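Collaborator request, handled under Task 6.
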Amino acid sequence: MSGLAAFSTKLMSGQRQVITATVVCPTGAITGSGDIHATMTSALLGGGTEVVDVAVLLGDTSAIVAQKIVVALNLNADFLADFVATVDGANVIVTALLPAANEVGMNLALEVVDATGMTDDTTSTATVAGIAYTEIANATAPVGPNMKVDVEDVTTHDSTSGFSECVPTIIRTGQMKLDINYDPDNATHDASTGILYRKINKLLGAYQLRLPDAGHTMFSFDAYVSSFEPSEPVAGKITASVAFDITGVPVLTGTY
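Structure tokens returned to the collaborator:
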């Protein structure tokens, strides 16, 4: 008989830093074709700064300009090594690829070169603070991820020997569940930076389940905190049951 003690299993949580810059065209659109610069500043970049040139045209709305900036940033290899840009209306949203401690100086500046009709935005907004992977404290019973594959019945009248047949369809990433000895003042539990903070703000977090085997097996996944249920028995300790709904493709072959 063989087995592995679960003691010292850890669920780590991290947060990717997010900043937002906004394209502002006072009249609603570019009034003169030309170029603008999108300048990304971060310690993650090799030289600390990456300047991307973006061509804009007469009549481009703020939303169109934002989309062009996102395309240009995501075509820049140096930028794409550490970040990804997305667009929401006139907002250019930059997200770090990996969780890390918050970088106060991270910034995306949008500045006019020779186009007209756009106002410079040299200071982006800190949208989500970065958090390096940190063990969720006081964990007692991690369970999951409970992945499964949906199957669809494809049995027909001429199925072999009358046995049912099926095909696999969607892989359900399911949930990661965690029981904790709840401490409202702990930074990994509280409503300022912890589990409650992520639930209240509907934040996508990065997680690692680290197993205590000799090979240091690790499951990595992104998830939303979907439920947080504290319990306060009169003759017992304060606990909480937490559920994380996993989204996207988990990495099940990692090590730490």
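The cover message to the collaborator said: "The two ends are 27 Å apart (CA to CA). Residues 15-130 form a domain with the Immunoglobulin-like fold (CATH 2.60.40). Please let us know whether this matches your experimental observations."
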